[in-house]
Amino acid sequence: MNMEYAPPLSFGRDGAKKHVEVFLNTACPYCLNFFLAAHEAVMPRVESGEVRYTIKHYDKPKVRLLHGTIANLFLDYNQPNEAYEIMKSLFLTQKEWAHLDSGEIEQMMKQEYGCQEQRSTMNLSLDITKEALERSISVVPTVFINGEKFEFDSMGEPGQISEKLAYMLD
């Protein structure tokens, strides 16, 4: 694989009957709710071959999301399972690192996760930002199921979101 380019995180087979696509940011507390819900409702369906799941980390230029953008630049999307696990850990520890400054986040990514800044992720970030602008995506999380916007209460509990997701995927 070309090390200057990385694809977005995508799990499952291309021919799956359902495709869940999410634009999110690891610094967003509402994205945490969706990520946990999708981990419960979507990932088992990925394993069974029913669903393809694509995660696009949107490095949206918003002060509150910059911490997620910095952490994201260290994820190696050419190693999707590892990137997913680190993303999951970032979501679960979000409150602990959300107050760090940019240098401390860089150190955390290097020391705690053994990551190095990824040029391919910078290129992917630009592609995802361009796509988000073209599709008029203005908030995270924004979710699509088979190309249709999935409406849900992003402030709701992960369990509630998971139930609604499961219903839409059945």
Question: Could you describe the 3D structure shown?
Answer:
The protein is of the alpha+beta class. It is 47% helix and 14% strand. The chain is built from 8 helices and 5 strands; from the N terminus they run ββααβαααααββα. The protein has helices spanning 29-41, 43-47, 66-72, 80-92, 94-97, 102-111, 119-134, 158-169; strands at residues 9-11, 18-24, 51-57, 142-145, 148-149. It has a 5-stranded mixed beta sheet with strand order 1-3-2-4-5. α3 runs parallel beside α6.
| Intertermini distance | 35 Å
| Regions with little confidence, pLDDT below 50 for 5+ residues | none
Helix fraction, binned, reads 40-55%
Q: In what range is the share of β-strand residues?
A: 5-15%
Order of helices and strands: EEHHEHHHHHEEH
Write down how many β-strands occur, each being a DSSP E stretch of 2 or more residues. Answer: 5
Radius of gyration: 15 Å
Give descriptors for this structure.
single chain, 170 residues, alpha+beta, 8 helices, 5 strands
Tell me briefly what this model is.
The chain is an alpha+beta fold and 170 residues long.
